[in-house]
Amino acid sequence: MTLRGRLSAAFLAVVLGPVLLGSFFVGMTVATVSRDRTNERLDHAVTTARTAIGAMCRQLQAVADAVAVLPAAEQRAAAGQMVARGLATEVRISEQVQPGERNCDPAPEAAGGAQATAVVAGAVQGDVVVLAVERVDPAFVQRLGGTSGVEVSLSSGAAGGSAVRQVPMGAGQPLPLEVQVRADEPVALYVFLTVAVLTVAGLAIVAARWLARSTTRPLEELAWAAGRVADGELGVRVPVGRADEIGQLGETFNRMTRELQAYVQALTASRDQLRGHLTILGDTLSSTHDLHRILQVLLRTALSATGARAGVVLLIDQAEGVLVARCAEGLSGPWDVPEDKLPTLRIPIGHGILGTVAAEGEPRRGPGKAASEKGRGPSPVEPGGGTYLAVPICAPATVGDPLVPGDWVFTSGRPATLGVLALYDRLGADEFDDADLLTLRTFAGQAGVAVHNVRMHEEAQRLSLTDPLTGLWNYRYLRESLRREVERASRFGRMFTVLVLDLDHFKEVNDTYGHAAGDTVLGEFARRVRMALREVDVAFRQGGEEFVVLLPETDAYGGIIVAERLGAATRDVPVRIEPRAKEQSGVAMTVSISVSIGIAVYPEHGGSAQQVLDAADDALYAAKKAGRDTYRLADGVVMPVVNVTDPSVSVGLTDGQLEHPGSVTGASGGPQPPRQARGR
User: Fold this and answer.
1) What is the pLDDT of residue 557?
2) Among 117, 175, 263, 519, which residue is least crowded by beta carbons within 10 Å?
């Protein structure tokens, strides 16, 4: 059954129940009262009839006595007067009671069931019997009924009913009578009650339908609106046209939907904002290897996600053991510095709040200014705020050796800390909560991945351009550097020199001492080459035992100086190598090595990078043919003679500063070029 049906049934039960019960009670009461009144009237009629019959008997007895006391001669005249006066119907003298007549004596004779015709009262005076007679006829019965106000008839013994009462014969009651009254049936009252009940029932049905409809219709509208809201239509409202509880419910529902709509809109905006931040974050992480930009985007996203006022990202400098500020937002005081000055802000690891987080690798949050802690030693001034939340930036957990040495080292089962991400003063709240901590740890994890990825990219890029054995740039970077140097020299009208170096008899070293010894020789030779060059000079390993040196802003004369310096640095000090594992002596050995060098100058020996490199390579083969441990300048330029004993030609000589070239000893021969303004 629906709610409307239940409400209608309940209302009808509440209204019609008492009405029907009251109608039944009224009907029963009226019937009882009517029956009681009938009984009272019957009792009154019986009493009245008994009294009338008794009075009649006394009257007849008085007549009989009055006549009987008179002399015989006067009795008949007196009897006539009595009859004439209506005191008796008949007065008989010296006669007997006739059949059917009823005697008024206290002990009447049995009637024998015969119909009574008269009532007799007698008096005896000597031998004379006087009978006073009252005829029982319809007129007598009518007079008797008129006296009692009811219908009276001689009883036949068969009548009965609620409105009939038998008056039996007894002392002073010679006649059997029936007293009957008309019963007062309250038909009009019953009709009125029936009409009233039907009217009330009709009105109750109408009222029940109206009440149920007025009650359930707002609920139906509310249920419909709730269904629409459940389907996502938060703009639905229910009409409120009443001030009762249902109207209040509608107003509450409308207020709830408005607040829910506002909350969903705010949540949607926050979700879209967070999605935008995550998109920017993802694009940044995936499309750039600019560590500063990545950390800046991470910090701004963390600030927006947690509602913090300020924040800072610090990374660990392993060499110095300090936290170095890399990017910051909204800080004040000593930390409010230009972006290029942030690296000057440093916090020792293990000191202060941020230093402790970096040392322990555990997040911390709380109220008050982040300051140094007692017992932690001296600490620099840290960023301040009402509340703070700091989490470590940890390296991602990996399996195997790291690509970047020392990038992540597991300590006590946890990855090493790369830095710290800290936020200050959450807006709209007293302190940062667990949700903020979880959010910031997520961003710190992304920051750790970003730092790791950038370092891996830098290391991978370095490995792709360097030789892992010697640490020098490889052939790929050689081609790029030559191309770039040719463009620069062509644009500004400059020159540069290329040296191609090849270790002499290197195969014999591998064959005699093993490839491990050969690797040692190559590594040591690369170290000596780096030591003999300026910071602007670049050394490459072209392959095997062949190397290339690029000397920017250097002419042929300077190239020859460097070649002599490299040759001397190579031959003068033998290379110390470890013995093989199978050798029992275990004594370290030394290997003497030498190098042949080819020299070419741009643009004298070629107009492109490849031409200059080919010219230097041809000069190298010329040096090999000349007996090795020497150098040769590419064809087309007269080779100057250099005195390597001149102090101005020492390893520490600066670019183009030759004051006393002197004579050449130990040079590889060849015509001497004109003296240049540039050189070594």
Assistant:
1) 92
2) 263
